[in-house]
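Dear Dr. K.,

Following up on our conversation at the group meeting, I've run the structure prediction for Catabolite control protein A from Paenibacillus graminis. I'm pasting the input sequence below exactly as I used it, so you can double-check it against your construct before we proceed with anything downstream. Let me know if the numbering doesn't match what you have in your notebook.
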Amino acid sequence: MATINDVAEQAGVSVTTVSRVLNNRGYISEKTRQKVYQVMDELNYQPNELARSLLRKHSNVLGLIIPSVAHPFFGELANAIESVAYQHGFKLLLCNSQLDSAKEREYVDMMRRNRVDGMILGSHTLEIGDYTHLNYPLVTIDRRIGDIPFVASDNENGGALAARLLIAKGCRKIGHLSGNMKLDMLSNLRTTGFEREARQGGVEFVTYQTELDVFDEQIYNEIIRRMFTEHPDIDGVFATSDLMALFVMKWCRTFGKEVPRDVRIIGYDDIGAASWYMPGLSTIRQPIKDMARRAVELLLEQMDDKPVERETVLPVELIEREST
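The predicted structure tokens came back this morning:
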């Protein structure tokens, strides 16, 4: 494997000159620069990125911690963040916390050791001080952690839009599947908006919360089965994620209910599956690409010591398909 010394010898320059070319430091003539690049290509030289990051004092790597990349929303969000980061010249270090605090702490420590330039947190299992004392550029997704800047969709309005649609379609008893309200998550504002609008609309509703592990799909099956067993007269359902809403569709078939004739269903997120599932799922669209773009921008602004907005709340959109 070629070394920086090999490159310098074949290019006829000093090791310092090769280092300056690699790190774009100091004056180097264009002729010399091109000669060094040519030799690196000929020798297939791969610079030591860790050493370069120590010299530059930044790594051009961003960290992202999410509960699980297998969850459709977080998978699409991670993909969007990686795309935006790459456009700005950064690579992405992706970690799944599985909502395990010990695992999340290990990942945070690993990112610090690897000198990532900033972290985006889509998971929050540690104490507030564990994040605020990091002295790193930080951004959270749908989580309010101390004074750390956050990006979220307009969750409360999204819940209200879902309730209005179901009421407008004639639903008189609505089942609502929410996250766990004990968790301090901005996404729980979807429930706040839904319940307020349902009360104002004069319709009956029943709310079923997930367990603390809000992404456990087995829990979805249990609470949906219980909801339809305890309230067989439900004629509308608002689930605070598309994934839960798709589980509702499955259980409607099990209980012999036709969608949307017997039960109208709306979700939240507008993941890819919402449009190709049959019947198509009505949903509240989160602007995932805009959320990703803004999260990366907030990190870059912190790196440049610019003033940063603490709260970024982006508008949502009602997408009506066949399920309502």
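Two things stood out to me. Residues 61-153+289-314 form a domain with the Rossmann fold fold (CATH 3.40.50.2300). The two ends are 62 Å apart (CA to CA).

Best regards,
J.T.
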